Amino acid sequence: MNLEIETPRWAKPFEQPSRYKGAFGGRGSGKSHEFAGRVIDQSLSGKNIVCVREIQKSLTQSAKKLIEGKIEQFGVGKHFEVQQSLIKGPANNLIIFQGMQDHNAESIKSLEGYDIAWIEEAQSLSARSLELLRPTIRKEDSEIWASWNPRFETDPIDELLRGDDPPPDSLVIQCNHDDNPWFPDVLKRELEYDKRRDPEKYQHIWRGGYQKNSEARVFKNWKVEEFDTPKDAIFRLGADWGFSVDPTVLVRCFITGRTLFIDQEAYEIGCEIENIPLLFQEIPDSEKWPIVADNNRPDTISYLRRHGFSKIYGAAKGKGSIEEGIEWLKNYDIIVHPRCKHTIDELTLYCYKTDKDTGKVLPILVDKKNHVIDSLRYANEGHRRAAVTTNTTEIEYDSEWD
Fold first, then answer.
1. The CATH number of the domain where 51 resides is what?
2. Whole-structure pTM over 0.90, yes or no?
């Protein structure tokens, strides 16, 4: 029997045979619904299917209820016999539900006759369980499916299917809420709330990003929010220079009370020096305002002065300036306009190093995902230094962009 299933575009490649089929991503992408529909389709073809997860204390924790719902949705109930612990297909083939933690090297052999294994919540599957399952599903043309919301890069399913050397004949697709044509409005409201309130949570829960160690996050004092830039705002601009694989960045911000607003960014990887003026012009009136830039490229600063940016200066930097600049930024409430996507990414990902053996957070900043953040430090260097110094000359110099 051929079952016509309305398939989202992201899942179309799964219509072709493949030993491994993996779908990972955030909540609301429809991964589980897609695989549950495929379970019904394959069962109607006489395939034996086992739905596994690491721990299954009861069938309420399995995909059984979801599959039963698909049987009803597709109107194929007459072809199935739903029993308490399993579902029988039209050719007396089976759909069963197993917890891998209950198996050992001997008991797992009971699954050798199955055509398909669908791993639900695959991020929780242990390395032991994965090692038991893979050689057990051994029939000709058998397949192993996995659906999961990523947790850590080191989780066994991620190392297997998303690592540097995935197994041959594997098809792995990322899908998120915006790939789901049936994404419900009630979840859309939840998503937007998390996006405004906690960008890190949004990236992990809704975009399928790896879970970060919250204790290692550098910045927790910020949020994404729409705002109108005041006409009388005093802008602070900072620039960082990229190379072949790094971005050249210009960021614009302004301060109101104890709040730092970031309203514009320009960002390009591999930007040639002759193209930097055009990149910087993406920020309105950037030629009119002082810009504090990384001082390790005096040739670039000189070039920009000759090409319309006469108010660009090298940052003073100095010993401890990175740590001091970061601490200064942490003392403000930071609001980022949604259009500043790279700023959002860096504030989400910038972190301290973690001891691999103990898991303890170290007082050492990870030197990556920090080009926008470096630009923010430079932009506010004068304001920060003026606040802590009593040197008259330095205050007057800093006042040029205050």
1. 3.40.50.300
2. no
